[in-house]
Amino acid sequence: MKLLENQCLDCLSDLIHTLSLTTGSCELQLKLESYSCKMTGDDKKLLRQMNSAAEEGLQALSPPTFGGYHSSNTPPHTGEEQDACSTKTFHSLVSCLNASFKPDYDFSHAKSEEFSRIPNLNMVSQDIHNILKTSLGDSYSDIKEHMWNTIDREIQLAECSFYSYNADLDSDPYAESLWYFNYFFYNKKMKRILFFSCQAHPYSQDSEDDMF
Question: What integer is the mean pLDDT of 69-98?
């Protein structure tokens, strides 16, 4: 995985973070990152390991959960699997997490059941809307169109499939968050993934200092 520099995504992430400090109910820490699916040496090694362990080349996924607020006090959904993805797709999602959080966290041993496939963009956008609207109030309405236009220019949403990650709270970066979401916008044709992650944290003294 290779991070694709995108100043518009960086500015959008900074904007939402700033709005959370000035008008929101908590501090939001975001990742809006675009990645090329071209594999590094480590990626290729991980794919070989996954292929050797996979049964029939498929990875079981959990049903999606909505309403946002995947609380850090709530374990991932472990109900009956209703979907699956190829090992290569699962590998791309895990490699994206590794690239985004390295060197602090390693997701190479993440379970496929911690991921879900989202049937369509409307479900993703509505979930994100509900979460950010609740957190930012009217400030989110002011930037909503700009946000989705910026994302669309980078990843071509009409061509994407959509996935989410429900974290393993014993070993991931979300244990201290109030809530979080993680969405992957995967454009197979472009060989690109846009990763949209958001964590909510209580205001700290440092956060309050950043307001001034």
Answer: 70
Radius of gyration in angstroms for the set of CA atoms belonging to the chain, rounded to a whole number: 17
Q: Parallel, antiparallel, or unpaired for β 179-187 and 192-201?
A: antiparallel
Going by C-alpha positions, the residue among 73, 72, 61, 79 that lies closest to residue 184 is: 61
How far is the CA of 9 from the CAs of 50, 77, 172, 197, in angstroms? 31, 30, 24, 12
pTM of the predicted model, to two decimals?
0.86
Of 177, 154, 188, 189, nearest to 32 by C-alpha is: 154
- Give me the count of residues in the chain: 212
Closest residue by Cα to residue 204 from 53, 21, 58:
21
169/72 Cα distance (integer angstroms):
7
Spatial CA neighbour of 131 closest among 63, 65, 67: 67
- Exposed e or buried b per residue across 25-58, where buried means at least 16 C-beta atoms within 10 angstroms of its C-beta: ebbbbbebbbbebebeeebeebbeebeeebeeee
Residue type, 5: E
Does residue 78 come out as left (phi exceeding 0), alpha (psi in the -120 to 50 range) or beta? alpha
pLDDT for residue 82: 55
Angle at 109 between CA 103 and CA 111, to 5 degrees: 130
CA-based nearest residue to 8, from 143, 100, 113, 140: 143
